[in-house]
Specification:
There is one protein chain. The chain is mostly helical. Helices cover about 80% and strands about 0% of the residues. The protein has one domain. Helix 1 runs parallel beside helix 5 and helix 2 packs parallel to helix 4 (about 75-95).
């Protein structure tokens, strides 16, 4: 169920952004990715683990750095960041002991991230070269 909700929410957010024009600004998807990258840090604070907090901040900083590079250079790097975070979600429970993460979160977030990456990639592919 978490996967279906993640896929549906990614499609709904993208449709809302497209329908309202929010995604006309190249900052939309990078901003979404920065929020996504920060959520595991929030969960570490909620879980009360300093070790998890440090680990999540380091990993999150890497995703944010890639996203900022994508904002400045090419939105294809944001596609990579979203997709890579989706893969990271799959392995997260085995890589970082973060007790604040809801049990269903990795599946939900992975589905959202990979769907959002696919949607953004499709939008870039269809855009004029000046728009990317």
């Amino acid at each position: 169920m978490a996967i279906l909700i993640g896929l549906t929410l990614a499609a709904a957010v993208s449709a809302l952004a497209r329908g309202t024009g929010l995604d006309r600004d190249r900052a939309f998807y990078p901003t979404v990715m920065i929020v996504i990258a920060a959520l595991y840090t929030l969960f570490a604070v909620m879980g009360g683990s300093t070790d998890a907090l440090v680990a999540e901040m380091i990993v999150g900083a890497g995703f944010i750095a890639l996203t900022l590079a994508g904002f400045k250079q090419s939105l294809w790097l944001v596609v990579v960041a979203l997709a890579a975070h989706g893969v990271f979600d799959i392995f997260h429970p085995h890589a970082i002991d973060n007790r604040g993460v809801p049990e269903w979160w990795p599946e939900f977030c992975s589905a959202y991230d990979i769907a959002a990456a696919a949607i953004l990639g499709w939008q870039i592919h269809r855009a004029k070269p000046a728009a990317i």
